[in-house]
Amino acid sequence: MEPLTSPPPYTSQPSASTVSPTAPTVQITNPMVSPFVTPAQKLEMVQAELEVAKLRLRQQARERQGLRRVTSSRASVLQRLAPKVIVQSPRPRLERIPGEEPELSIPKLNQRRIAWNMILSEAHTPSAWSMASLTKIMLRDLSMETHHYGMMLVLRAVSVSAMHSSMQTCIAVEDENGDYELLTVHDFAVTNHLSREIQIGSFFVVLEPFFRTVLDEACVLCIDHPSDILFLDADDPMLPHAWRTSVVERSPSHWKQAGNEALRSDNPIEADHSRALAARTANRAKDVVGGIVHRNRAQARLCLERWDGAYNDAIAGIRPLPTEADEYTDFQNMKALYRAGRAAYELGAYARAHSAYTSVTRIAPNDIDGLRELKRTEARMAEQVTGINFWAATGPQAHGTKVDHADFLRRTEARQTLTHGRGLFAAEAIACGDIILCEKALAFVPSPAVPKSFHLVIPPAAARGTFGTQSDMWTAVIQKILANPSIGPRLLSLYAGPNYPPLNNLNIPMLDGRPVVDIFRVENIIEYNSFGYAHDASLTSFGNAALATPGMDNKDCSMGLWLHSSAINHSCLYNAEHSFIGDMVIFRAARDIEKDEEITTLYMEVNADYETRDAALRIWGFSCDCKLCEADRTCPETPRRKHLLQQAKEVLERLPTLNATFEPHRVVMMFEDLLTQIEDTYPEEFYCGLPRLGLVTLNRYCAFAYSRSDPDKALKHALAVIGAHGYKLTITEEDIEFDRTNAMSAPQVVDQLMNASRIYESKGQMALVSGLRELALKMYIVINGEPSGFDTRYGKAREHGNTGGV
Ligand SMILES: C[S@@+](CC[C@H](N)C(=O)[O-])C[C@H]1O[C@@H](n2cnc3c(N)ncnc32)[C@H](O)[C@@H]1O
């Protein structure tokens, strides 16, 4: 008999995986933290530090609320700025303004600080007022811990921007009275409009300013929502006379040249800005250049991934056709159409992209690029109807990348459920193994290949912080939505937790020409709807699976937000498995699904212990009411089972000692005895036809222990693992029946189906060999999304047992 050792893991390498929308991920590069501390321990340490910091902060905020702000001199404001500045790369030094106090130098450190670099505002909504309707106040009129509703500040930057935290920029500002203060602003809009504009001398308005305590115990002007700051040109009438300078009126062609130069030097933001000015001046002059500047700005916006604006500009850049053939106009229109096609393609608006590329090929029927893009767009349109052909298309090589495929959503639709909010329902019957849906992420943050610096976000009123890729997701989603407000309604329709009732109007409002996005609502949407998962290009088997390695610590996993899939509710007796390829999520039917049946999936690994499982699900604010949870809740044996499961866990932890002390058969007997006791805690009247997850682990160990010495016992334990997942496997001489009602697909089941297949092979029962392999392969594809890795793990089918392959 084999000594009892751990059965092989599902994956060839350990990796973290979770489908938890909320599972915090952490990567700390702080050298003060020992590299031998596990991620879970690090998380605990930081959480503890945060709890103390939050309490202190709340206390200070209470004490200070409404107190008049203490005025600060320029020197003292800069003094406070300097220690905050953590220079990452070549961030500039504070510059000296002649005649002012001597300048401070900024220490160049190569690391970021951790716990105090966090966001800790109480949730509040962005200002809903246009600048023109607000009353101007001065810095000296500010009160602490106060939102100054109906007011605005007009300010000038007196320092360069400095990194305040991994997600915030900090600058020193002054008002026209010569008072100074520090201002922090989130770096959400790095590619949009904020950080690039904050430089010495830039002017801006802060709408309904919020003056609050930060963790260095001082107050700062805090801008949470990107739309609460508005930059002004140097000649803006809003500026005090002493600050105002006239802006030299330039011609459209000047701005066009400036834009071209900016693009050439790889600065699409500057190009976009120049082209906006060109468009403004050109429109005024009703100049022919108007078409050009729109086309050019479309190009700059493509570089900035502002697909909405790029599409509109490209369409505006199409010139009316002259009565006679005109090569120049054709050429310019092709440029505009290409840009429109690309922007529409990126927005997933394939019909619009198709129309643009068709027009290109009408102008130039042999244009190779036009024909190629048209074909590519047609492939995406076909995928929307038929789904991706994974066998021909993609594979594990797509990990960590954005895959070039279309959503396939037509088989499902979101509807209201009776008790679980919105849910996703099958619009047609879907057979076990078939694709339910494929969807590209709205935003996707791959796990970093190299551990990154520490990102920490403390959502207001939350019990805990979020780390790593989860906080990067916040930035990614907000950037995406600021750049493409047309996506707003679909994002804002998602469940945002108990503190955010559904909105009546889902459109992103525009104020003074910019989109108004409530970052706290978005943070909650991410919290409740995004999926976190591990993917590792080097993994072959089960590499795409959502729960590749149950029980591992959470590490810095990848995260994404999928708008349509977000309507899917949890059930421990799920009928859909999900897997990930690049930024695409794939849901497959884990059993036959009827038309109008609700699609459900696992939010996290189902723990055999009910209390543990229920506590984890409460993070999402609900208790599962599936038949299994109902049985666990009502069965009087549940507490005894918990105790026995704990005992089993302790025995497994002592396995090396047991193996060294006892003969293998004695250890196996100990396991079998425990199994009998656990089995007794699943009375038939409560668990008829349901999974009995407490029996999985020990049976796996026993199947492995008997694998060489006693095939019949190994088979018994292998079948017990399958049965413990709720499957009814009936095997006769030649035939296999497999009932999936109320069952849970899992890598362990695939392993044991193949284990049983091999045992039957050794007994010469070849009909069963291929039948079991077929079942295993089908479940593998359901879990992994596609077949790659199956043969690597289990070997190729022999000639006589060939299942027909994939
Ligand atoms: C990703 S959303 C799912 C869609 C959501 N029901 C909606 O209305 O948009 C996750 C939230 O749905 C609810 N939910 C999911 N599964 C549930 C279940 N089995 N029972 C009750 N509520 C559930 C919880 O409020 C959870 O936080």
Architecture overview:
With 806 residues, the chain is an alpha+beta fold. The chain has four domains: 165 residues, Beta Barrel (OB fold (Dihydrolipoamide Acetyltransferase, E2P)); 101 residues, Tetratricopeptide repeat domain (Serine Threonine Protein Phosphatase 5, Tetratricopeptide repeat), CATH 1.25.40.10; 225 residues, Beta-clip-like; 167 residues, Serine Threonine Protein Phosphatase 5, Tetratricopeptide repeat. Helices cover 37% and strands 13% of the residues. Strands 1, 2, 3, 4, 5, 6, 7, 8, 9 and 10 form a ten-stranded mixed sheet that branches. It has a four-stranded mixed sheet with strand order 11-12-24-21, with no helix packed on it. It has a three-stranded antiparallel sheet with strand order 13-23-22, covered by helices on one side. Strand 11 and strand 12 form a beta hairpin. Helix 3 runs antiparallel to helix 4 and helix 19 runs antiparallel to helix 20. It is globular, with a radius of gyration of 31 Å. 47% of the residues are buried. The C terminus is likely disordered. It binds S-adenosylmethionine.
